[in-house]
Amino acid sequence: MKRTLLRASTKPLRRHGPVKARNAQRHAKEWARAYHSPARVRWVAAQPCVVCGMTPSENAHIQTGGMGRKANYQYIVPMCSTAHRNFHQHGREFGDSRSLDLPALARLTEQRWLEHQRRQEG
User: Fold this and answer.
1) Any idea what DSSP says for residue 6?
2) How far apart are CA 85 and CA 33, in angstroms?
């Protein structure tokens, strides 16, 4: 007996590739809201992990933007891939079990980024 999979949505599956022209502007705006700029993404990736101190790191959003959206870039901390994966598995308990104040670390990351930008400009 052959099984068929039913999908809950009738929308076509999104294929990997370039973003459609009609959504390119919205996509760019959302990316900028969530990550700020490519320079900031590279800078955060060069920072040590807030959990173990390893580099390179990933840009880890510590909050959601609601309903499948990424939070604003002010809620990013650098985490190695292992810590980032564990954070997604355990959620808020991740920071509590390690005595990490993730919102404070996100604010510190933002302050350091702003200082880095000021040094680059002046």
Assistant:
1) P
2) 23
The full set of domain ranges for the chain reads 24-121
Joined together, the tokens standing for residue 108 give 């510190």
Q: Rounded to whole angstroms, how far apart are CA atoms 117 and 21?
A: 32
Report CA 77 to chain centroid distance, whole Å.
8
Q: What is the mean pLDDT of each run of 10 residues along the chain (122 residues)?
A: 55 59 80 84 92 90 76 88 90 82 91 92 80
| Amino acid, res. 41 | V
How many CA within 13 A on the CB side of residue 78?
Answer: 22
Contacts of 44 (CB under 8 A, 6+ apart): 57, 59, 76, 78, 109, 113
Architecture of the domain whose range is 24-121: Orthogonal Bundle (1.10)
Spatial CA neighbour of 83 closest among 56, 119, 43, 121 = 56
